[in-house]
Design a protein that fits this description.
The complex is a heterodimer of chains A (365) and B (348). Chain A has 365 residues and is α/β, with parallel strands linked by helices. Chain A has 16 helices and 12 strands. The N and C termini of chain A lie far apart (52 Å). The relative contact order of chain B is 0.12. By secondary structure, chain B is an alpha/beta fold. The chains are: A alpha/beta (365), B alpha/beta (348).
């Protein structure tokens, strides 16, 4: 039998989910025979793992780009990628994609002997190590499902924390640059992201707590914690949302929407004393940096997508006494819901109250 | 042994398919070869599990991995491996540890000059050195230089082992410390309570007692290391101890272990791999010996360098017929503690 020497990990999803793979990356390195760990990612997430020392090569399969190109260009690009991957002669495929096609190509074109993946609704037909998911992700955290799949493939995953690595050489420069830009709000500030949930596209509204509530909550927190400023961050598409929040705040604030790289965003998070945002990539990034955080959850159950691993300084805020929540199940939710009561009826006072234990640990220092 | 004449830029293979510490003690050989043959192509053949000991070693051009439990387990795997080695056209092979498999591989690969010890298929060698390591008259690394005599290499005065602490390993290790919330800025005391053989293992209870005494003396962080297989031993040291001991069992790669030791104040260990890694990265080390037989005792297996102490029982009074195989249980906490204090008190 051949030991695992070379591994390909397929993960086409967003920033947060990709961070859930990082415990598996660490665990792979602890196997003494493993020499190569490569990633095949979707668009826009490369930065998350680019400087992770447990990763060798990163390949990107950008679906947006494929859509823009002609068929001939696509064929050439995919063939090129396929040949490159084939030359690396992987022993194991860890497929986190919930799709059958990656394992199909891995079997017929790349010739990977062990193919581990999730068997959700017969999507595992080309895998030979299958993690059954009859209910989708449920009852345990998504990151534990990822680790579970790795364990099924013979990789014990013991240390389960998310990791983000800064570009090692540029880190100081980034910090200086960020400090310069944030000079107006002083050293003691919190970071807020009123947007988030970009990966849901038009349905991102189902992940967003109302902006006016954010403003009110920040006011209350300011009285309690005494921070001097607020840094508002978001994607380019969220400029209006961020501006709206900025306008309704009464303390010095600074807005950086769509202007920062991921490393810069991470540097901001690392400097801030608290992060508040909606369920999404930034929450998990803040968690990886061990920044105290509070995140809002609507249709999505926090026990599956909440801050990971659980900690008293990273809490999920959600409407507790609502029968229809959480409606996210088997990767679907009620997107025809007209009220979005789970987010809209979660009043700032209630959110503040739910944050109480977090504030206590913060004041203990 | 007859002298060997090599071409201008010779291709040299050094094999060491053995334990981790033994491989670390072989690294002075790489340096000596590089000094003698600056233009040579020097390759090391090691077990795949030990790749991090040699990958990144500046004196080597190539690392060849041997997977005894996997790809190269069967006879076909062995033959295929020999074929791959044959293609590399080496001029000389030096077997630092005699095994049937390695002697055969080099013979099958048709390497013209084959130096090794007089054991395990010595007929497959061209230059056979008497297997005198078992007499334990000098340190393992010093013994290895006898193999280099046909090349005109003599032993240098100071022997230094080398372990590459890569940037990758350091960063991965730093993140582990960050997420485990290990305080920086305090001295780190590392305990290594496991070993490959139970006759080398100082009792877990004594390690715990030592931890208590060290904890009483200084405001440091005490951590216990071991491979994934040794987790039970690490756990038992932690259970028996009444001071906090951080469990790093099964959490470190060899590279990360080197990164840890590089930053640590001291390592207290049974005679096993981590001792030699510590001395390679300059970490003060106390090595505890229970066995005294010449081939197994401290004379041969003591750590290289000066920043180390060996704790062993003096058995010169015991008549040969009454000697036990190991005295590991009779090593006192006092003796180990005194050695550790002595090293910690030295100015860095």
């Amino acid at each position: 039998m051949k030991n695992i020497r070379s591994v390909l990990i397929v993960h086409p999803y967003g920033i947060g989910d990709l961070l859930f793979v990082t415990p598996v990356l660490r665990a792979l390195r602890l196997l003494p025979t493993v020499g190569t760990v490569d990633l095949l990612l979707g668009s826009r997430t490369r930065e998350v793992v680019e400087h992770n020392p447990h990763v060798d090569e990163i390949f990107v399969l950008d679906k947006d780009k494929l859509r823009r190109q002609t068929r001939f260009e696509n064929f050439r690009e995919l063939l090129d990628l396929g040949l490159k991957l084939r030359a690396r002669r992987y022993d194991l495929l860890l497929d986190f994609s919930l799709r059958p096609e990656n394992a199909f190509w891995a079997f017929f074109f790349l010739g990977i002997p062990k193919r581990a993946g999730f068997a959700y609704k017969r999507r595992g037909i080309f895998h030979n190590i299958r993690y059954p998911l009859p209910e989708g992700y449920s009852r345990q955290h998504a990151a534990d499902f990822y680790a579970g799949l790795a364990e099924l493939a013979g990789i014990p995953v013991r240390d389960r924390f998310l990791e983000y690595y800064f570009p090692p050489r540029e880190k100081r420069e980034i910090e200086i640059k960020i400090k310069d830009r944030l000079a107006g709000i002083g050293k003691n500030f919190i970071t807020v992201s009123p947007g988030g949930g970009d990966s849901w596209g038009r349905e991102a509204v189902f992940k967003r707590w109302p902006v006016k509530y954010f403003a009110e909550l920040i006011g209350r927190l300011q009285t309690k914690l005494g921070f001097k400023g607020v840094c508002i961050i978001g994607a380019r598409s969220e400029v209006e949302l961020c501006q709206e929040l900025k306008d309704s705040l009464r303390i010095p604030s600074f807005m950086l929407a769509g202007e920062t790289s991921l490393a810069e965003t991470a540097a901001i998070l690392e400097m801030s004393s608290l992060f508040i945002g909606n369920d999404g990539g930034l929450v998990h990034l803040a968690r990886a940096l061990e920044v105290p955080l509070a995140a809002f959850y609507g249709p999505v159950p926090p026990e599956i997508y909440g801050p990971y691993p659980g900690s008293e300084n990273a809490i999920a805020l959600f409407k507790r006494d609502l029968a229809c929540r959480p409606c996210y199940h088997k990767f679907r939710f009620k997107n025809d819901c007209s009220t979005i009561a789970c987010l809209k009826t979660l009043a700032p006072e209630e959110a503040f109250k739910q944050m109480e234990p977090l504030l206590q640990t913060m004041s203990r220092g | 042994m007859k002298n060997i004449t090599l071409p201008d830029s010779p291709r040299i293979l050094v094999t060491r398919t053995d334990r981790i510490g033994d491989l670390v003690l072989t690294t002075p050989v790489f340096k000596a070869l590089r000094d003698q043959f600056p233009k040579a192509w020097i390759a090391a053949l090691v077990f795949i599990e030990h790749r991090e000991v040699v990958e990144g070693n500046p004196f080597l051009d190539e690392v060849i991995l041997y997977d005894k439990q996997g790809l190269e387990k069967s006879i076909w795997g062995q033959l295929g491996f020999a074929r791959r080695i044959r293609k590399k056209k080496f001029d000389l092979v030096i077997h630092c540890h005699g095994t049937n498999r390695m002697h055969l591989v080099a013979w099958l690969a048709g390497i013209p000059a084959r130096i090794g010890y007089d054991r395990r298929a010595p007929w497959a060698l061209t230059h056979v050195k008497e297997y005198d390591k078992k007499f334990g008259e000098k340190q393992e690394a010093e013994y290895l230089f006898d193999l280099l005599a046909p090349l005109g290499i003599t032993r240098s005065e100071v022997l230094e082992s080398f372990f590459p602490v890569t940037d990758r390993a350091k960063r991965s290790f730093d993140h582990l410390m960050f997420h485990l919330k290990i305080p920086q800025g305090k001295p780190w005391v590392i305990l290594s309570p496991s070993a490959s053989d139970v006759t080398k293992m100082w009792p877990a209870g004594k390690f715990s007692e030592l931890a208590t005494r060290i904890h009483h003396d200084m405001d440091g962080v005490i951590m216990a290391i071991g491979s994934a297989k040794d987790r039970a031993v690490v756990e038992s040291v932690r259970e028996k101890s009444n001071v906090p001991i951080m469990d790093l069992g099964g959490r470190l790669t060899l590279g990360m272990l080197a990164a840890l030791l590089e930053k640590s104040a001291i390592l207290v260990s049974n005679d096993s791999g981590p001792v030699h890694i510590a001395s390679a990265v300059g970490c003060p080390v106390v090595s505890i010996f229970g066995r005294y037989e010449p081939g197994l005792g401290p004379n041969r297996w003591r750590p290289l360098g000066r920043n180390c102490r060996v704790v062993a029982k003096d058995i010169s009074e015991v008549p040969c017929s009454e000697r036990k195989f190991t005295y590991i249980d009779e090593i006192t906490v006092d003796a180990v503690y005194a050695a550790a204090r002595d090293l910690l008190a030295r100015p860095v």
